[in-house]
Amino acid sequence: MPTCMSTPTALIEIPGFTLHSSVGGRISRTDYLGQVSVVMVFLPDLKASLHALLPFQDHLAEFGLAKCQVLAVASERVSTVREFADRHNLEIPLLADESGEIARELNLESACHPVVLVADRDCVVRESVTFPNVHIEGVLDRVRRIGEA
Q1: Per-residue pLDDT for 96 more than 60?
Q2: What is the pTM of this model?
Q3: CATH number for the segment(s) 18-148
C-alpha cells in the first residue's frame, strides 16, 4: 500500500510543462501564464478519480467567467487519457504526464487521492486541497478572490 502524503504547500510555482492533451495537441504552462488563473486537478488513479472531475465539469462555465482554466493531470499515456476523456465526455483538458515529471516536481507522485491546486496568473499556487475535502464552491470563491487581487 502506498504511503499517502500531504498536499503541497501554497506559494510554490507550477513548473513549466508541455503535455499532450485529451482535446488534441499539446498544452503548455506558457499558454496561460500571465493571462488566466489555473486550477490543476491531479489524478493519482485515473479510473478511480472521475468523481473528482465531475464537479469541475459541471461548473466549467463559471470557471471561465472567473477567467480561470481548469486542467486535469494524470500520469498516464496519451492514448489512455484520450480514451478516458472520450468515454466520459470530458470537456476539461486532461493532460498526459507520461513520465510523472510534473507530479514529482510538485511532490505529488505518492498522492493517494486527487489533489486540487489553485494558482494565480503567474502560476503560483495559492491553495491546495486534497479530496474528499474539496468543495467546488470554495474553489470557485478562491479563484474569484485571486482574480480580484
Answers
A1: yes
A2: 0.88
A3: 3.40.30.10
Sequential DSSP letters for 40-95: EEEESSGGG-HHHHHHHHHTHHHHHHTTEEEEEEESS-HHHHHHHHHHTT--S-EE
Give the percent of the chain with pLDDT over 90. 46
Could you give the 3-state DSSP secondary structure of residue 139? helix
Burial class (CB in 10 A: 0-12, 13-18, 19+), 48: exposed
| Chain mean position to CA 113 | 13
**Residue 21 is inside which H or E element, if any?**
strand 18-21
For residue range 23-78, what is the model confidence (pLDDT) as tens digits? Answer: 989 999 999 988 899 999 998 888 878 888 999 999 999 999 999 999 999 989 99
| Helix-then-strand count for the chain, H and E | 5, 7
What are the sequence ranges of the domains in the chain?
A: 18-148
